[in-house]
Design a protein that fits this description.
The protein has 11 helices and 7 strands. By secondary structure, the chain is an alpha/beta fold.
Length: about 200
């Protein structure tokens, strides 16, 4: 293997809207209902794929006017959804970087408008040779063209690359374009799988 490609959210960065909405709801069931029926993952992914935050927010407010304030907080208070680095994975990234044996990249579903906040907050994001951000490319995982953007831009041979993601859907799509994959569940499990692949000793 010559190249390691990381997903960011859920692998290196702990991002969860509940960190914010637990402050805004007193009833957990109501919060879960709001997150699953109003500010849904599908809605959020459209911003990840390039729709502007202003447009996404306006569409949702028009659909659920009774929740205007809660909807506006999703991006208005977005930094409060960042729980910090997933340190065990950052330690692995550090080892990979220090070994000097691998090209390191990131492939992430992330809004172009909020990604600069993460870049400022997490120093390790500057260790990658390249980061392909869905919001900038106007495409996202699991669409094949998004993976091909990374492969062609950085001349990555998929047969010599490992892709790490916490979303099984994205893993299957990566396998379809020829990448070796690790379905991330924990830093410990990732380390074990990278040892098995002889990426880590």
């Amino acid at each position: 293997m010559t190249t390691i490609v990381f997903d960011l959210g859920g692998v290196l960065i702990d991002w969860n809207p509940r960190y914010l909405y637990k402050q805004l709801f007193t009833d957990e069931q109501e919060m879960e209902s709001f997150l699953s029926t109003v500010t849904t993952p599908d809605w959020n992914e459209e911003q990840d794929a390039g729709r502007t935050i202003a447009e996404g927010t306006a569409l949702l407010v028009a659909k659920h006017p009774e929740h205007r304030e809660l909807i506006e907080h999703f991006y208005g208070r977005w930094p409060e959804m960042l729980g910090g680095a997933i340190q065990g994975t950052v330690d692995i990234l550090t080892e990979l970087r220090d070994s000097g044996r691998y090209r390191l990249y990131a492939l992430t579903n992330w809004s172009e408008e909020t990604f600069p906040i993460a870049l400022e907050q997490f120093e390790f994001l500057h260790w990658f040779e390249g980061i392909v951000v869905s919001g900038t490319e106007k495409s996202r995982k699991p669409f094949p063209d998004f993976y091909h953007t990374l492969l062609t831009r950085y001349q990555v041979d998929p047969s010599q690359a490992v892709f790490i993601d916490d979303n099984e859907r994205n893993i299957h799509a990566a396998e379809a374009v020829g990448l070796h994959t690790v379905h991330f569940q924990s830093p410990e499990q990732l380390r074990t799988e990278l040892v098995a692949l002889q990426v880590l000793a």
